[in-house]
Amino acid sequence: MTIRFQADADLNHNIVVGVLRREPSSDFQTALVAKLEGLPDQEVLAIAAKQGRILISHDQRTMPLHFADFITTQTSPGVLIVPKTLLISEVIDSLILIWAASTADEWTNRIIFLPI
Question: Pick from 99, 55, 62, 97: which is nearest to 79 by CA?
Answer without folding.
Answer: 55
